[in-house]
């Protein structure tokens, strides 16, 4: 497929845009700032103006494109963004507005789900259809793909891996309002919090500023940092094992800021997962670091458009 598509990945601080071929090649990419003034009403105008300008600049026409894919940070349903706190949106009819602006087919998808599809399309082995994508960043996000289709769920909340409840010896309030969700412990913030608690308990003079420092301390043999990482990985392994044993995916992909630790994270995670997995799964599971990077959201949004047009 050689048609061109427009991919849009809307974030709280910036919006990534791209012209993408049907084969997943990015012809051009650019980004604009997210203008959240006027309850986010300027965001759509900025997107439309930016795309129109880029099409003119490249001497293209709207008719050169086969569709537009959009990823947004929030639940989506029926072409509407149900709620996007970072954008100031509630029940925003985004598909309708963009379709009226460009007269092209538009698909709307949650940003974590878009990133999952982007990784599946470009990062996974050809022919894979079942993957679990987990982002370990400020929070914990995720996307679940079964038979090549994203799981959105009855309430547009499928793949909310970060909100799997945990049983722990302490109590942390999650941003969703619940207590002891996975992201309270397995996110970058969660690891930092765990490390801080251990430092206060064992060595208040130990200095660290971020999660990279924690992994560096552990690599140098610091037992407190090692325990903080092991605790974080243990919680993550228990949560992931329940998903893996339920879905039996071909691949689990780890992205987000914590994945920058590479094998320092993935190696102990594989080790922690193995005794928790169903026998037929444990020796066959592929666990890898996300490889597509910041383009995953744009690519996944386009992939969703292509898949819908195949139906």
From TrEMBL:
It is an enzyme of class 2 (transferase). The keyword Transferase applies. Pfam families: ROK (PF00480). It comes from the Bacteria. GO terms for molecular function: ATP binding; glucokinase activity. Keywords: ATP-binding, Kinase, Nucleotide-binding, Transferase. GO terms for cellular component: cytoplasm. SUPFAM superfamilies: Actin-like ATPase domain (SSF53067). One of its GO terms (biological process) is glycolytic process. Its EC number is 2.7.1.2. Belongs to the ROK (NagC/XylR) family. This is Glucokinase. It comes from Vagococcus elongatus.
């Amino acid at each position: 497929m050689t048609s061109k598509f427009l991919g849009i990945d809307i974030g709280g601080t910036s919006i990534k845009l791209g012209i993408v071929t049907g084969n997943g090649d990015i012809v051009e990419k650019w980004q604009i700032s997210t203008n959240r003034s006027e309850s986010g009403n300027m965001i759509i105008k900025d997107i439309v103006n930016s795309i129109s300008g880029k099409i003119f600049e490249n001497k293209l026409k709207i008719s050169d494109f086969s569709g537009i894919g959009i990823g947004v940070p929030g639940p989506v349903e029926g072409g509407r963004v149900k709620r996007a706190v970072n954008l100031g949106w509630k029940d925003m009819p985004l598909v309708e507005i963009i379709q009226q602006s460009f007269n092209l087919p538009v698909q709307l998808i949650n940003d974590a789900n878009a990133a999952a599809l982007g990784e599946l399309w470009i990062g996974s082995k050809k022919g894979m259809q079942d993957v679990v994508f987990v982002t370990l960043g400020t929070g914990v996000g995720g996307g679940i793909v079964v038979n090549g289709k994203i799981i959105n769920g009855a309430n547009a909340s499928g793949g909310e891996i970060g909100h799997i409840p945990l049983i722990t010896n302490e109590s942390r309030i999650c941003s969703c309002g619940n207590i002891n969700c996975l992201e309270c412990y397995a996110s970058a913030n969660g690891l930092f919090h765990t490390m801080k608690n251990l430092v206060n308990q064992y060595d208040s003079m130990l200095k660290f500023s971020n999660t990279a420092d924690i992994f560096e301390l552990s690599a140098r043999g610091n037992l407190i940092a090692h325990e903080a990482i092991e605790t974080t990985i243990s919680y993550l392994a228990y949560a992931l094992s329940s998903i893996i044993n339920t879905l039996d995916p071909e691949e689990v992909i780890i992205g987000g800021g914590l994945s920058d630790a590479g094998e320092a994270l993935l190696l102990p995670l594989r080790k922690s997962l193995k005794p928790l997995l169903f026998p037929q799964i444990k020796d066959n599971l592929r666990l890898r670091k996300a490889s597509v990077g910041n383009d995953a959201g744009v690519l996944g949004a386009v992939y969703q458009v292509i898949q819908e047009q195949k139906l």
